[in-house]
Amino acid sequence: MGGSFSADLRTASAHVFVADLGSPSLEPDDAHHLTRVLRVRPGEAVTVSDGAGRWRMCRAGAASGRGVALEVAGPVHEEPPAAPAVTVAMAWPKGERADWAVQKLTEVGVDRVIPLVTDRGTVRWDDTKAAAATARMARIARQAAMQSRRVRLPEIGPPTSVGDALGRGGAGACAAEPGGQAPDLARPFVLVGPEGGWADGELPPDLCRVGLGPTVLRTETAAVMVAGVLCLMRSGLFRRS
């Protein structure tokens, strides 16, 4: 079961991440977003989090040339990590489809997102490209976590081979493939392959497969679908019959 979701997080005018909960201050981009996009006014509630489960209520102060002041208005709370941790390791789609996947995976509540290097994948990685993509994914995940009021930022992993991902997932690993069994929290580490499917011999023959219905899904759609099911099951809002 995951941690409780406070009404304060849901109803605050904004939610942001800060480096220090004791003396919270906004990054320039976050200050601009609050004042220019969300139009938060002085006195309105703003929740702040350290991204590792700790958060507190604040009030927005007046905007100035140095940004927006935050006034502490409540104690520090700590949400325990949800269990089991849900990981999606997916073959990386191109362009904006990858951005969309990271955003939606963050919103539904996954704990880890790992770009998966597959035999039939269309994205090829070098060190420079991998570092830039990881930094971009982390920014997108942070923005999505603010919007969805998460107090724990998801871990964004580096590009990883199928073998290394399976080693990390251990007994909890499975792979999305047509005809597989229903997703289950006993296997919360899911590998999602490219649109061309898994290559022959790419997966161990005894690896558990999970199915996602009768239609053919894009990689990012399959990733978000299985993540949503697992996170709903983990929250207790959805149970297998």
Features:
241 residues; alpha/beta; Ribosomal Protein L25, Chain P; Alpha/beta knot; 2 domains; 7-stranded parallel β-sheet; 5-stranded mixed β-sheet; 6 helices; 12 strands; 31% helix
Give a description of the structure.
The protein folds into two domains: 7-78, Ribosomal Protein L25, Chain P, CATH 2.40.240; 87-235, Alpha/beta knot. β6, α3 (96-108) and β7 form a beta-alpha-beta unit. The mean pLDDT is 92. It is elongated and about 60 Å long. α3 packs across α4 (127-148) and α3 runs parallel beside α6 (219-235). The protein starts with 6 loop residues before the first helix and ends in a 6-residue tail after the last helix. It contains six helices and twelve strands. By secondary structure, the protein is α/β, with parallel strands linked by helices. Strands 6, 7, 8, 9, 10, 11 and 12 form a seven-stranded parallel beta sheet that branches.
Could you describe the largest sheet, including whether it forms a barrel? Answer: 7 strands, parallel
Report, as a whole number of angstroms, the end-to-end distance: 18 Å
| CATH homolog superfamily of the largest domain | SPOUT methyltransferase, trefoil knot domain
Strand content: 15-25%
Protein topology:
Layout (H helix, E strand, L loop, with lengths): L6 H5 L2 E4 L10 H10 L7 E5 L4 E11 L2 E6 L4 E2 L8 E5 L4 H13 L3 E6 L9 H22 L6 E2 L3 E2 H8 L3 E9 L7 E4 L16 E2 L8 H17 L6
Helix pairs in contact: 3-4, 3-6
